[in-house]
Design a protein that fits this description.
The protein has about 120 residues and is α+β, with helices and mostly antiparallel strands. Helix content is about 35%, strand content about 35%. A 4-stranded antiparallel beta sheet has the order 1-2-3-4.
Length: about 120
């Protein structure tokens, strides 16, 4: 088995996540990073996209989950992981980081982030 790592980084979305009602009405910008460890033996031998994890599909799965409002980042992060495992059976381990850009914390803050691994 050739275990490999595929990363799709700095995907940016406008979404409506937040524990405050105002955040869920006005939305905010979010950045998502996905790191996947998978069995890439077949793909490395075949040179066929059908044998690997399609980056476009990773983006679409992430986009779908980001479109569903959550109160906390932990929840949306877990949903992305669950959806990736459902879509790609060759996954061995997934790490997802969701960052809220310029969160409303009462002062200048670049971002807040949650990272989960399964």
């Amino acid at each position: 088995m050739e275990a490999g790592i595929i990363e799709v980084e700095n995907m940016e979305f406008y979404a409506f996540h937040g524990c405050y009602d105002l955040e869920q009405r006005t939305g905010n910008r979010f950045r998502v990073d996905v790191r996947m460890e998978a069995d890439l033996t077949r793909a490395s031998e075949s040179d066929d996209i059908a044998d690997t994890i399609n980056y476009l599909e990773v983006y679409r799965v992430t986009q779908e989950q980001m479109a569903v409002p959550s109160r906390i980042l932990e929840h949306v992060t877990r949903r992305i992981i669950d959806a990736l495992y459902d879509r790609f059976p060759q996954l061995l381990r997934v790490t997802v980081k969701v960052s809220k850009l310029a969160p409303p914390l009462g002062g200048k803050t670049e971002k807040t982030s949650v990272t989960l691994t399964r």
